[in-house]
Design a protein that fits this description.
Shape: elongated
Low-confidence stretches: 1-19, 21-27, 29-34, 149-157
Number of domains: 2
Structural class: alpha+beta
Number of helices: 6
Strand content: 15-25%
Distance between the termini: 109 Å
Radius of gyration: 37 Å
CATH architecture of the largest domain: Orthogonal Bundle
CATH class of the largest domain: Mainly Alpha
Order of helices and strands: HHHHHHEEEEEEEEEEEE
Helix content: 55-70%
CATH topology of the largest domain: Helix Hairpins
Number of strands: 12
Length: 411
């Protein structure tokens, strides 16, 4: 009996080569989408990505907690008696809340951007896989269609022997089963692609919303910054308001004196080797580069003819570098808000010597930390300041204020 050219068998005849080639082609198409990068490398990338996302989530949690704490402080402040300093505190708290909320939006945009990029990156491989599966299905259906009209009895008579029949029958059965697997895989890939594209569209909308919300929050912050400047100008131009502010600041200075006396009674043991700070008098590095705008001692107002006693100095940064660095090695014994001084950080240098850093925009260390000379402590800010962005610096011995300019290296 003559075998048709389109007949498929495994007996070495022409049709046998067609079936073998078709089956091998299908297996090749199915496996061609396997990643070429080593498994270890892919795993490392996945771990790095997971770590980045974890760190970003930790930052988001931290900023959210800070916002809750600040809002609690603002509610408590609003319950207190209204004074000039408390009014400035409320403005400053509102500014800080807005800054944190803006930071939160920035982090959320970064996270949404990463997720959007990941979704975009996932779509091309899914489309390629879908194309390969379409091709595999087309090949399978074409092959099976050519044999869709034969019966096993006809196939049996066309086979040279029982072994040939069994082999060819098994191959066709495997091919039919493979068709079902490819169809299921195609449906799964299609569903995954559809979901990914839908998620990408959703993420685009989410990111656009975050960008718009950040714009609104930035405008609110600018409005609050302007309100703060207007209020400070009112204080500086009105003698009665200015004098009342000085009186309140003097009260805060007395409270700070009490805090320093308390800290002076809590001696700490510094790690060895230890260089006493008094050995570095006149050689201490400046905590921030800038211009001294407020000097130690009595200061006379140029218009109101009033005198103010300053226990420290104020340094206005002259560059974009607003990182405050430690004068000398020591331990952070205080890092919190203190009315009149803004965000205040105090270092204990041992042997009853201290350095104080006020008006900070934010801390880079926390209470209990040991720091080395020159280590970043905080960022220069204007919280609690009547003179704009600057660093308020004090050096004390046994709670007694000393002139910082006599301790810093000469310029």
């Amino acid at each position: 009996m003559t075998e048709p050219d389109d007949m498929i068998s495994l007996t070495g005849r022409p049709g046998s080569r067609v079936l073998g080639t078709a089956f091998v082609l299908l297996i090749s198409l199915a496996s061609s989408g396997a990643p070429t990068a080593p498994a270890a490398q892919a795993k490392a990338k996945a771990q790095a990505k997971a770590q980045d996302n974890s760190e970003l989530d930790a930052q988001l949690t931290k900023v959210r907690d800070q916002i809750l704490d600040l809002k609690t402080r603002l509610r408590e402040e609003e319950k207190k008696e209204a004074t000039i300093l408390s009014g400035l505190d409320r403005i400053n708290l509102q500014r800080t809340i807005l800054k944190n909320e803006l930071d939160l939006y920035t982090l959320q945009m970064e996270k949404a951007g990463r997720e959007q990029a990941a979704l975009k990156k996932a779509i091309p491989p899914l489309k390629s896989k879908l194309d390969r599966e379409k091709e595999a299905i087309a090949t399978t259906l074409f092959t099976l269609y050519k044999f869709g009209r034969f019966s096993f009895l006809q196939f049996f008579f066309q086979s040279e022997n029982i072994r040939s029949f069994a082999s060819e029958s098994k191959s066709l059965t495997l091919l039919a089963q493979y068709q079902q697997d490819v169809l299921r895989s195609y449906q799964t890939t299609l569903a995954k692609l559809t979901t990914t594209q839908r998620n990408l569209a959703t993420k685009k909308v989410e990111l656009a919303g975050l960008i718009e919300a950040a714009k609104v929050k930035r405008q609110e912050l600018e409005n609050e910054e302007a309100r703060n400047k207007v209020r400070i100008e009112e204080i500086k131009q009105n003698k009665a308001l200015y004098q009342q502010t000085l009186n309140e600041l003097n009260e805060r200075a007395q409270q700070l004196q009490q805090l320093m006396e308390k800290l002076a009674n809590q001696e700490i043991v510094l790690p060895v080797p230890f260089v006493p700070i008094y050995d570095r008098k006149g050689k201490l590095p400046w905590p921030v580069e800038g211009k001294v705008i407020t000097r130690f001692g009595l200061e006379k107002h140029p218009v109101f003819n009033t005198s103010t006693k300053n226990n420290g100095i104020e340094i206005a940064p002259e560059s974009k570098d607003v990182v405050i660095k430690a004068l000398h090695a020591g331990k952070v014994v205080y890092a919190d808000y203190f009315q009149g001084y803004g965000n205040l950080l105090i270092l204990d240098h041992g042997l009853s010597y201290y350095s104080l850093y006020g008006h900070c925009a934010g801390f880079l260390v926390k209470k209990g930390d040991w720091v080395s000379a020159g280590q970043p402590l905080a960022l220069v800010g204007d919280v609690g300041s009547l003179k704009g962005t600057n660093l308020y610096l004090e050096i004390r011995y046994k709670a007694q204020p000393l002139n910082p300019l006599q301790w810093l290296e000469h310029r």
